[in-house]
Design brief:
This protein is of the alpha/beta class. The protein is built from 16 helices and 19 strands. The protein folds into 2 domains: 233 residues, Rossmann fold (3-Layer(aba) Sandwich); 236 residues, Rossmann fold, CATH 3.40.50.300. Strand 10 and strand 11 form a beta hairpin.
Length: 495
């Protein structure tokens, strides 16, 4: 933690914002000082993202004021890393880092480009990764894209201390060592005299990096105190308005083998063997580059399969045949719901009905709109989607409620195999508990579940056994008493 707070960089006084009848922010006030990491926590829809978007100028507040260090010296410069990252996916890492940059000479001169390329590698190298900075950002993993956005925000940081770095869910796609590297960078930024506004659903990270925590609930400040005065349980109660029940270990009764994978290889995976039985939840862990984030897509057919056999309920799945995977009973919730899991400009009803239930309806007969809306309302009620308005565009829902809709879309097909990538990425503790219970209930009804997650704690709580990957191969299989967060983390990090 930084030794002491310095001058006020930003003062927010009585900020208010409404969207129709919904009050997103209600008289929110806070002050961020130099040398301070201020964490803002709250459930999905509590107003955190609205606060950031007003600070960035995307939304205009209905009332209140934002002061950028009005006492002495130059105005505070704000740098943002938003949840959507703000990257141009058809451009390379090098080009994305250059966006908005200032160059002394032409950026297209060969010597200049060579220097920019070296700088790009150095910036992403701070996070212990090494990927092609000339490749399109859209080809990178979610974690790699996050690192590009962070590197761009930190570029040139050493040249100016009158800055506030605003991080909106920066670790959502990161794991273990990558998170630790980011936390170290955040602390260094504060120690140099800058301020940091840190928004995260991962409350343990908040307690580990922040000096002060401000809790929002329903758009109002319900807590503003030093992190030294609150523990994890207390922070959960502030966010949720009460304690959140943890998922109890299930009494597992395995059924027939649902999934059998032999010698599966892809971009990062090499010779993977895995089985999943009916009613079993199998986890996949590993750091960035281990192949963790490729397994589910390879099994489903979304990524190119270089070799290997995938059998679902005894039937071999042809590489890349997504329709056959769905017909045989596979369901896949990808890690990036905005890019791969849903269409944000479509309504909740349209997203929910986007996958046809095999055998449930004729391909030539359209469902009536009224019937679709009624069915969607039932799913929304069962899954606790708020607001319960399926006709709204999905973009208008909070992250946790978007994820519930994406999950419901696939569970509506009553799958034999449920493939999950980062099932609770970017959701609050309350929504995470709901999603975990839905997954456990689905497994209890006989569905086999394969879940890849960057959160060791999530895998330890949710799974019956966990495969740990490193460099594309399984280096450990944990179950029973060995299945703990610490054992997963220890096995994930190469010696």
């Amino acid at each position: 933690m930084s030794p002491a707070r310095g001058r006020a960089l930003v003062r927010i006084d009585g900020l208010t914002k409404s969207f129709g009848a919904t009050r997103a922010l209600d008289s929110v006030s806070l002050t961020i000082h130099s040398g301070e990491v201020l964490a803002v926590v709250g459930h999905n829809g509590s107003g955190k993202s609205t606060l950031v978007k007003i600070m960035a100028g995307f939304h205009t507040a209905d009332g209140g004021a934002i002061g950028l260090r009005g006492e002495t010296g130059p105005p505070t410069e704000l740098r943002f890393i938003h949840q959507d990252l703000g990257l141009v996916e058809t451009m390379s890492t090098l080009e994305n880092l250059d966006l908005g940059g200032k160059h002394a000479g032409s950026p297209w001169l060969p010597l200049r480009r060579a220097a920019e390329r070296r700088l790009a590698r150095e910036l992403v190298g701070r996070f212990g990764v090494d990927f092609d900075v000339d490749a399109p950002v859209g080809d990178l993993s979610p974690a790699e894209r996050t690192i590009v956005a962070i590197a761009r925000a930190l570029r040139g940081w050493d040249q100016d201390e009158n800055m506030l770095l605003v991080l909106d869910e920066p670790t959502a796609a990161l794991h273990g060592a990558e998170v630790e590297r980011l936390m170290a960078v955040v602390r260094r930024v504060a120690e140099r005299g800058a301020g940091v506004l840190f928004i995260s659903h991962r409350l343990d990270e908040v307690l580990g990096v922040a000096d002060t925590v401000l809790a929002l609930r329903n758009g109002q400040v319900v807590g503003d105190l030093p992190c030294s005065e609150v523990d994890y349980a207390g922070l959960v109660e502030l966010v949720a308005g009460g304690s959140v029940e943890s998922l109890e270990r299930r009494d597992v009764r395995h059924g027939d083998q649902v999934l059998r994978v032999r010698g599966l290889s892809g971009r990062s995976i090499s010779g993977l063997d895995v089985t999943v039985h009916a009613g079993e939840i199998v986890g996949v862990a590993g750091i960035l580059g281990s192949g963790r984030d490729e397994v589910c897509s390879l099994v489903f057919g979304g990524h190119e399969r270089r070799s290997g056999v995938v059998e679902l309920a005894g039937h071999a799945l042809a590489p890349g045949d997504l329709r056959e995977s769905i017909r045989r009973g596979a369901a896949f919730v990808p890690g990036d719901r905005h890019q791969d899991g849903a269409v944000m400009t479509m309504t909740g009803v349209e997203n929910l009905m986007a996958v046809r239930v095999p055998g449930a309806e004729s391909r030539w007969r359209r469902l009536r709109k009224g019937r679709e809306t009624r069915e969607a309302a039932t799913w929304f009620s069962t899954y606790g989607v708020v607001p319960a308005k399926p006709e709204m565009d999905l973009s208008q829902f909070s992250g946790g409620n978007q994820q519930k809709v994406v999950l419901a879309k696939w569970l509506r097909t009553r799958p034999r195999l449920l493939l999950l990538e980062e099932p609770t990425q970017g959701v609050d503790v309350g929504a995470k508990a709901v999603i975990h219970r839905l997954i456990a209930t689905t497994a209890g009804e006989g569905t086999g579940v394969l879940v890849a997650s960057s959160e060791a704690k999530e895998l330890a709580e949710l799974c019956d056994r966990v495969l740990v990957l490193a460099d594309g191969v399984v280096v450990a299989e944990l179950g029973g008493a060995e299945l703990t967060e610490s054992r997963i983390l220890h096995a994930s990090v190469p010696a």
